[in-house]
Amino acid sequence: MTRQEFIKMCSLLGISIPFQSVLAACKSNNINSETTFEGKVLIIGAGAAGLTAGYLLNQKGIEFQILEASSVYGGRMKINTEFVDFPIPLGAEWLHVERGIFDEIINNSSVQNTIETTPYDPDNDYALFEGQQVSLGDLGFDIDQKFINASWYDFFAQYIVPSIQDKIIFNQLVDTINYSDENILVTTENEEFTADKVIITTPVKLLQNGLISFTPQLPENKLNAINNVTVWDGFKAFIEFSEKFYPAAVGFNIIPESAGQKLYYDASYGQNSDRHILGLFTVGTGTLPYRNLSDSELIDYMLEELDGIFNNQASSNYIKHISQNWNNEPFAKGAYVSDQEDWRRIRTLGESVDNKLFFAGTVYTTGEDWSSVHTAARSAIRTINEIT
């Protein structure tokens, strides 16, 4: 079963949040309230999974540190706050499950989440697909919601990071992880760290590229999963126009379906703003040719493409644009794992090694869902439960 097939099954059964299996859809993902673990945990990466893991360890009073390769936290939740008057999500953008995921992550009933989201309106919103008007549901927007003047990054910045920020050590690119002894030794370019458990949230593309050397070598089934999983290329762009001439979304047919996705969409949807921003989201082969163009070539190409769809209204209303090529990000090197990936390979990616190395992130899951912020957070919850 692929990720898309699983989510479709949940939708047909009226299940809005994927869990361990369809039959266990009502099971809670709550974090265990008690712990017998008394050691130190080292977390590699300060993206959604790493931040969630650190936050939950902090709630339990367990010693931990987060090593982040870059100079900022957030990973693929990256945003731009200068382009217009609301956050532009250069990475993760939509809420793909019910709002209860926020409470799962916060894990504190006394904290009220004020982050606002809005669903699409199936009665008034529509999309185009290869020139034909279709419903948003036809493009897969069944349960997705847009953040209102906020983003996934803002949620973590407001509720998760403040209590753990002093535990994040930036500019620490991990070179080696030696888990052959009782204490695990983690080395970066300049320092050494020891821990009893290590949580690895490094994007799988970087593990494919051999960014981290493991001693002993990871088990063969884990290495096979890492090396054979398909990581899609990723590219996003945002264009401001003086007038709105486009629907909520414009989909394109990528052949074969497993090769990627491409979508123009109303990035201003639901925002408290009068700016007209059209976003481009594309992964896999859909990123071609965008990611290989210069900036001037890129906007010329997009405007010509949109002019052909909307009777030359794009060029006449163009104001400015920005873009994000995720293949060029040194600590990502791509977008996320294909929606068409084999769930058994995903499950292997999420399995721990020798009760010492644990994996959490968008793709290190149990195989029922992957490649979203909520899957990263839930994988962190699962990992902390397993450790403690």
Q: How would you describe this protein?
A:
The two termini are 31 Å apart. The protein has 388 residues and is of the alpha/beta class. The protein has a seven-stranded mixed sheet with strand order 8-7-17-18-19-16-20. It has a five-stranded parallel sheet with strand order 10-2-1-14-21, covered by helices on one side. Strands 13-12-11-15 form a four-stranded mixed sheet, with no helix packed on it. 25% of the residues lie in helices and 23% in strands.
Give the name of the CATH superfamily of the largest domain. Answer: FAD/NAD(P)-binding domain
Apparent shape: globular
Q: What value does the Rg take, in angstroms? A: 21 Å
| Number of continuous helical runs | 10
What is the percent of helical residues? 10-25%
> By helix and strand content, what is the structural category?
alpha/beta
CATH architecture call of the largest domain: 3-Layer(bba) Sandwich
Mean pLDDT across all amino acids: 92
Question: Could you say what the CATH topology of the largest domain is called?
Answer: FAD/NAD(P)-binding domain
How far apart are the first and last residues' alpha carbons, in Å?
Answer: 31 Å
Top-tier CATH class of the largest domain: Alpha Beta
Count of the separate structural domains: 2
User: Which ranges are low-confidence, i.e. pLDDT below 50, for 5 or more consecutive residues?
Assistant: 8-28
**Major sheet characteristics:** 7 strands, mixed
Strand content: 15-25%
Number of E strands:
21
Strand order, sheet with most strands:
8-7-17-18-19-16-20
